[in-house]
């Protein structure tokens, strides 16, 4: 049991509840909805674009609910074994090592699978018995079935705006989650975040947010994804350290978004308009 | 033999027959049909949409027939070894470990392969000699052939409504099963389930079921899969805990079903109509 | 040598020749042809639809020729090592373990590869030197070449009616077999089998066979494969245990064959016509 | 060295030169050409259809040249390690085990790669330094370079009539071989072979050869490959054991060649014409 | 800790800060921008064609910022384990070995991923938590989460001009970097570099740069990539050692760029024009 | 160090500089160009058709420059580990074994990668840091970075005339080499080589070369690759041993080049014309 709590402590960097809560400004009723899902043992899917605050929200909720948080970044090659665990061959025998999902299930942690749609089907399917009334994790390799400890909750994130070839969540998976929609914050709040995190004056922050809104409108003209709040903060950081704001916009806001010459020109024109 | 029954006990969470039976309200003659299949040693295929109660039915039948139940969720990477077993290398030698199918065959359990069509062909083909008059499981790796213990029965589930690319059950596999068709329960019974599991008043439960029927009609307009009874119960749970029912429908019933803006709008209109 | 005969006994469930012969009613001259192939050391290919009695025929012939029978179900992932054998790493060294084909070659058994076309090319190619005048099995991993013991015979089955993408037997493989064609038994004999195996009255058995012939005619309208005698027997089993015969036809004869609504309707109409 | 000759003896079943020579009736100057290639250290490619005697020819030449013969059947999954050798992990350490090609190179054997085009490119490329003036086999895994012993010769077979998707020998590989063309024997000689190997009377043998010529003409109408002399011998074997010759033609000559109904009908008509 | 600094010293060949700085002539404000990114803990993406000085720039900045530099060349088969580390099985047990990224994270080095777009998605996704406010590297296999040491910075390079099939950086990855654009140096500076590195006279260097500009204009006519400064230096090296400059251009500047006969002719015409 | 020179000696069969130089007749200034590249530490790419003498040229240059030569035949499955080295598990622990590239880098050998375009990208990319000013080989698995010893040079060969699907050298790789173009020798010199290596009279050798020129002209009519000097020498060898020259042309010059009936007829017509 001491070993179990060590495993959680090692995986959960937000676990020290004496710390200040992770900064998060609620947009609507998402905090109440998440709390009800938690108490009703319902899994949650956070839908929204890159960099709009989904990860922060989960960290905030974990702090608020006093639960450890275990985060897993999903990708093409994430196998079920990476989640559940594996046998390690050691010179003195074979030992079983729990994966991060198993640790979360045993310890009643919130388990957050970031960009879940990137994972392979065999990885996603192991989540199924954890998301219905069974709340069980079968471990085929040891023949064990673990009942989720009280407090365990599965949370996944998902970016519906980014088109993937062939990859999608199966309907039978989607129906296992309550879905909370996220978006970029409204202009005033986004400007407040930019100013607070970077130290630029409010006028600059507001101008950057205004620019971001114009750039996001280019999505219809072929921009693969809208610039995130994170990009605005990076731009503001450079501006706050003496880089001319127009130059900061070019390197931190425009150039990362595309390699297409006409799109880049259109975006730089908008920079010019905003910071003449 | 003690080891064998331990393995079953470890894999079967429904094995305690002193417990109350798993809640299941029969729709037609499926209980009698299943019992006759069991007594005639015929394998059964449960056909029907996600979340319409197939898993519950199997659990109920296992309880009713006093058989242990071993459930396996199928997926793309489920190998024959995952079902049958493998050699484990240990520091003191190599030991054979039965997989869940082998455990079921040896102990006379009901073995339930959920979403069998997701499994690879090599996994499905090992089921063949278990589903004809032979009732045998050959284990190539040990050179052993196991006769199924009395009471062993193979059950698979299959969702014919969900289109898969390239994947389908081969006719030579299909012909090895008696097929029982499942569908969502009729309105009255579905409302009864929703009210009983969530605690919402009957009027709310009936309204939710009415809404579900309207949403299911959207399948012709591109909805990949109809909302399940499970989604209705999740929605009702949130409503029972103080979330406004319209909001609960948005996050637990509508948003999980699609990312398509026009489909989402159509679904939210139906919510508005039902809970004005 | 004692070890060898143990391996055969473990793999061959038909090996006890004091038992009654496996039930098989010859259709034409297939028994005589098979016997001549056996005595001339010619490999045999059984061509025919699923469930028409190919496996039973091989079991019958093995009993008749007093040869052990080793059966291997082929599939996509069946590797040459699965057939031939492999080195097992044990704590006290590495030992070679014969695969089922090697056991058959050493012991002069009949080796039956069911649905051979499903296997990979590298698996099929190992059969080549066993099917010409050499009658040898080279084992690359041990550098051994085994001469087939007297009585060894290779038999494969193959369903020409089932279309596979890209997969087919190479002409250089096909030319290594004498091909015996199988089909469903003629009506009278099929009715006799159905009645004898299930216990239904002769009139019911004949009506079921009549229905099967009508259903088999639907293959031109898109039915992937004709209903087998095995399906008729399953249907009759249910009818013999009190399930109404029309309902038994629906779950055991019609529903397993297709998910297509119009095909299912057409088939159920035929059931209605046969059992009004 | 004793170990080396043991390895060759184990792999070479034609190595006992006190035995009678393998039966082979030369068609043209292929024996002289092969001998000159052998003495000039030139690799040889045998081009021709399935079952026309390529393997027998190599066995005959090995006997004639007093060289051991090592035969390797190529296929999709034949890896370079299968040819060259591998490290085996044993409980008392790791030992290198020569593959059949390495054994041939060290011992000056004739190494015959049957159906070489089926092998993977990485397998074929290891042959390159053995087929030019270098006559060396580099073994990457041990860092060794072996000079071919005197008498070593590489022989490959290749069926140009069988169409493969995407697979072909690279020009840089083809140019490393002298190519000897093989075909079915002329009618008189083919009838002589059929009679001698099966024991049927000369008139039957000649009729079978006449039939084969008509069947081979069907290649323009879609027959994937012409019936081989081997098929004729199998047919004759059955006829010699009492199976009516027409029936023997159906099961051993026609049915193995195709599953196409119209081709089968056309072929059976030709059987009818030949044996009315 | 001593072990850690040994690992860095072994991986970082620019770590000796008593050495002269790597030669780098700034083109614009890239040095100041990089320094601000470094101080604001922002990851940097260097965009530009092959051979225009991106690698040199990173080496220069590492020297300037007094940080160790660890360089990783990305490719198709670079796995997450190659970056993060793996367990090594040794005869006396299993030990964990940090990969180069982990070493950089622990030691506060600059980690430079050259041609990052070539790597697999699972490799790229491990960079995500290092590039936002978390600055953490989770190591799934040990269950450890490492906070990046002060001074750690992630730098990637990327050639937007080279078209790749199917491969591209995901928007959610791109948005994690500040992007600095690189291009070939202006003519005067490029001539200065060519003369200084090769020893050819200034007139020759200027003529070579003039030729390169004409060749780069051929990109619209199908040249896959523009000749780099590196190619000019190689050409000049040969010219400085007595190879006629026209011949040096043919072998070191023209022939490496294409196999297309008409493109080669067009390029050789330009050589002729420049060095008549 | 003694171990290192043993490794080189084992891999380099041309290392004995007391031997006569490998026979090579220069075509133009390729010897001088190669020497200058060697002294300027420039990597070299040899472009030209199969069998035109590229391998001989490298062997000659290694002898001339008194460098050991290590040759690696590239293919689809050549992995980076095959070049660089791997850990071998032995019963007494794990030892690192240098691959051939690492041996070349450590010992200052010429490393020749034959048909480099056949290798996988991950294999090619490890060459990059060896081909610019760094001259380093990073070994990820040991965390070591090796500086190339003086005299180390990378040489690759490449056949631009042979069309590969999807495979090509990336521009960023091509730009790392000086390219020397090779072609078949001019008629007089080719005849001289044929006569000298085979022993046929000069008139026969000249006639064979004349025939080869006519055959090479067929490349526009679909011949995949021109007949090499190597094929001419093989043909001449057979002619010198008594095979009629026309027959020798058929088996050693025409038949290896194609399976296409009309191309074979056209080529045999040319043989007939040359040797009536």
Automatic annotation (TrEMBL), chains A, B, C, D, E, F:
Positions of the CbbQ/NirQ/NorQ C-terminal domain: 190-272
Keyword terms: ATP-binding, Nucleotide-binding
Keyword Cytoplasm in annotation: no
Lineage: Bacteria, Pseudomonadati, Pseudomonadota, Betaproteobacteria, Burkholderiales
Matching InterPro entries: ATPase_dyneun-rel_AAA, CbbQ/NirQ/NorQ/GpvN, CbbQ_C, P-loop_NTPase
Family of this protein: Belongs to the CbbQ/NirQ/NorQ/GpvN family.
Protein name according to UniProt: CbbQ/NirQ/NorQ/GpvN family protein
Domain of life from the UniProt record: Bacteria
GO molecular function: ATP binding; ATP hydrolysis activity
A Pfam family this chain is assigned to: AAA_5
Positions of the ATPase dynein-related AAA domain: 44-177
């Amino acid at each position: 049991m001491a070993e179990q709590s060590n495993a959680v402590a090692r995986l959960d960097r937000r676990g020290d509840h004496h710390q200040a809560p992770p900064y998060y400004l609620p947009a609507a009723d998402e905090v109440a909805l998440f709390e009800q899902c938690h108490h009703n043992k319902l899994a949650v899917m956070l839908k929204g674009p890159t960099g709009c605050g989904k990860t922060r929200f989960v960290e905030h909720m974990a702090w608020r609910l006093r639960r450890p948080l275990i985060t897993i970044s999903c990708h093409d090659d994430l196998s079920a074994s990476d989640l559940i665990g594996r046998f390690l061959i050691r010179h003195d025998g074979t030992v079983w090592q729990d994966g991060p999902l198993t640790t979360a299930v045993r310890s009643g942690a919130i388990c957050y699978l970031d960009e879940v749609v990137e994972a392979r089907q065999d990885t996603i399917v192991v989540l199924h018995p954890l998301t219905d009334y069974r709340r069980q994790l079968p471990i085929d390799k040891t023949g064990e079935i673990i009942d989720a400890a009280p407090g365990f909750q599965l949370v996944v994130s998902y970016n519906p705006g980014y088109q993937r070839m062939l990859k999608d969540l199966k309907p039978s998976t989607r129906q296992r989650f309550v879905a909370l929609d996220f978006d970029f914050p409204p202009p005033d709040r986004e400007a407040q975040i930019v100013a607070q995190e970077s130290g630029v004056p409010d006028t600059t922050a507001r101008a950057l947010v205004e620019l971001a809104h114009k750039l996001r409108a280019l999505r219809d003209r072929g921009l693969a994804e809208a610039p995130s709040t994170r990009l605005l903060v990076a731009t503001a950081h450079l501006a706050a350290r003496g880089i001319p704001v127009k130059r900061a916009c070019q390197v931190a806001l425009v150039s990362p978004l595309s390699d297409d010459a006409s799109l880049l020109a259109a975006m730089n024109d908008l920079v010019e308009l905003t910071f003449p």
